[in-house]
Amino acid sequence: MADDDARPRHDDDARDRADDRADAHAHDRAHHRGDHPRVPYDRVAVERALRAGGATGRVVVVGRTASTSADLVAALGSEPVAWPDRSVLVADHQAAGRGRRGRTWTTPAHTAVTVSVVLRPGPDVPVDRWGWLPLVAGLAVVGALDEAAGVRSVLKWPNDVLVDAAPGDDALPGWGRRRKVAGLLGDVVPLPGGPAAVVGIGVNVDQVRDELPVPSASSLRLAGARAGVGREAVLTAVLDHLWRLETRWRAVHGDARAAGLDVECAAACATLGARVRVDLPAGREVVGVARSLGPDGSLEVVDGVGALHRVLAGDVHHMRSAD
């Protein structure tokens, strides 16, 4: 069965026709601004490139969906055998991407990389070590943005990638002089043959300032990416880095320290060494200095009286020293 026939169900034809009409309007607006037009992926070329680059499972590119991660989670529940290890679902336009705590990640059509992957580390990697996967994926994004776009970036624990704000932009509470250019989301899906992980990655590539949803966001374009860098180059670089890093992690049974990934993630993580406020579930919070990453990928925060808190989940706000 062809991938187009077996992919997660969407009304692709109708939506793609709508996207084509939107593309025409976007092309006109871009022409009047003097910008390059935004075009859809060449699906066949993208699928071929991702398979050649290490996606050993199923590779599907769809025109439009609400959320690639939600689609993969649902597809794994209904057809787990159809989505083996290192399967990839790419959306040309993601209309309602999922973030942490139910937040959405929205982008104009054809301006961002939106992709989710299936990882099946198997029984040799304990599930309690899977908390490293979003950090490993974030490290992959950091490496890919430098390689493909010439943009330096850093991690913000647990699942954001930040770039420097544009000259003249003000510091923002919780963000300082940095802005979010990419986000990550991890899901663990229980399956009869053993769990699978779905890792979603979204990278803002071509948005201009008035297309960003919040002041704390940015794009590679605004961050000074090399001229001519397109979404395909960013997508292939991100997945290339992800496969290489995840292979190292898996080879040592998910032991990030043995793989050297704890050191690399720490070196790329702007949260470490910063004074932070962590909003925890049930309305609790921890304020202190982010000291280190724990063996399970948790954030270790030392509060004002010297007590150590290991944070597995929470919203982290970077604070100024005077806050």
From TrEMBL:
<feature type="compositionally biased region" description="Basic and acidic residues">
    <location>
        <begin position="1"/>
        <end position="27"/>
    </location>
</feature>
<dbReference type="InterPro" id="IPR045864">
    <property type="entry name" value="aa-tRNA-synth_II/BPL/LPL"/>
</dbReference>
<dbReference type="Pfam" id="PF03099">
    <property type="entry name" value="BPL_LplA_LipB"/>
</dbReference>
<dbReference type="GO" id="GO:0004077">
    <property type="term" value="F:biotin--[biotin carboxyl-carrier protein] ligase activity"/>
</dbReference>
<keyword id="KW-0436">Ligase</keyword>
<feature type="region of interest" description="Disordered">
    <location>
        <begin position="1"/>
        <end position="42"/>
    </location>
</feature>
<dbReference type="InterPro" id="IPR004143">
    <property type="entry name" value="BPL_LPL_catalytic"/>
</dbReference>
<feature type="domain" description="BPL/LPL catalytic">
    <location>
        <begin position="44"/>
        <end position="250"/>
    </location>
</feature>
<dbReference type="InterPro" id="IPR004408">
    <property type="entry name" value="Biotin_CoA_COase_ligase"/>
</dbReference>
<dbReference type="GO" id="GO:0005737">
    <property type="term" value="C:cytoplasm"/>
</dbReference>
<protein>
    <submittedName>
        <fullName>Biotin--acetyl-CoA-carboxylase ligase</fullName>
    </submittedName>
</protein>
